[in-house]
């Protein structure tokens, strides 16, 4: 007597022999695999679709930020500081920490330019706060282009402190730049560090001269 497997047909009324059962199981397995293939293909297609949508959204955000930045630069060149500040601030408000490097660079440049305009307007405290905001947000960023803007912001912040008459803090800020970016391979940052050394010596000479006249 052949061993029977407890496999039943759709009505649940028959049992099948071993050979018949094996054939049924094999056929069912093949059918299942064939049925799953389109599902996997559909999932891959959906995943690719999601990636394309994400890339399109990122590209749109980059273009929008670049348009705003260019608008700010154009306004500044026309001495329309109010419009320039508004464009830069709009970029800052839309910034997200998960943004791609292209947007992070534009965000950093927008704050750097905003600080420069505020400094020229005599709003030194606001300018310093803007540079500090940039450093807080992107000071640890590893992207080379972002790091160059952060280093530039430190130089600008040091100069803002100098304009305030706070020579000690200006020198300390220059020193901070040298320490934080000492191992950076960027030729631009190396140039900034060289400038800070010259400026530090100049500020110390000015402070000494000022003290001797009192």
Walk me through the topology.
Blueprint: E1 4-5, E2 16-17, H1 18-77, H2 81-94, H3 101-120, H4 124-138, H5 144-164, H6 167-180, H7 187-212
Antiparallel strand pairs: 1-2
Helix pairs in contact: 1-2, 1-3, 2-3, 3-4, 3-5, 4-5, 5-6, 5-7, 6-7
Beta fraction of the residues? under 5%
Q: Based on Cα principal axes, name the global outline.
A: globular
Quickly name the level 1 CATH class of the domain at 95-212: Mainly Alpha
Q: Major β-sheet, in short?
A: 2 strands, antiparallel
What would you call the structural class? mainly alpha
Helix content: over 70%
Report the total helices: 7
Radius of gyration: 32 Å
Report, as a whole number of angstroms, the end-to-end distance. 119 Å
Order of helices and strands: EEHHHHHHH
CATH superfamily of the domain at 95-212: Tetratricopeptide repeat domain
Average of the residue pLDDT scores = 81
Name given to the CATH architecture of the domain at 95-212: Alpha Horseshoe
Give the low-pLDDT segments.
1-16
How are the strands of the biggest sheet laid out side by side? Answer: 1-2
The name of the CATH topology of the domain at 95-212 is: Serine Threonine Protein Phosphatase 5, Tetratricopeptide repeat
The total beta strand count reads 2
């Amino acid at each position: 007597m052949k061993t029977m497997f407890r496999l039943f047909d759709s009505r649940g009324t028959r049992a099948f022999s071993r050979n018949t059962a094996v054939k049924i199981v094999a056929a069912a397995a093949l059918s299942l695999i064939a049925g799953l293939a389109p599902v996997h293909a559909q999932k891959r297609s959906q995943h690719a679709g999601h990636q394309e949508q994400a890339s399109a959204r990122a590209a749109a955000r980059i273009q929008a930020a670049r348009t705003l930045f260019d608008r700010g630069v154009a306004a500044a060149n026309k001495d329309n500081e109010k419009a320039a500040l508004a464009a830069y601030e709009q970029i800052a408000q839309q910034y997200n920490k998960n943004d791609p490097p292209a947007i992070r660079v534009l965000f950093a440049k927008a704050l750097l330019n905003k600080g420069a305009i505020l400094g020229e307007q005599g709003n030194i405290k606001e300018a310093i706060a803007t540079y500090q905001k940039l450093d807080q947000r992107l000071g640890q960023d590893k992207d080379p282009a972002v790091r160059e803007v952060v280093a530039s912001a430190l130089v600008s912040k040091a100069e803002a402190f100098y304009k305030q008459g706070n020579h000690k803090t200006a020198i300390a800020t220059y020193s901070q730049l040298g320490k934080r970016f000492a191992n950076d391979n960027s030729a631009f940052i190396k140039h900034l560090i060289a400038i800070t050394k010259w400026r530090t010596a100049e500020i110390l000479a000015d402070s000494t001269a000022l003290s001797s006249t009192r």
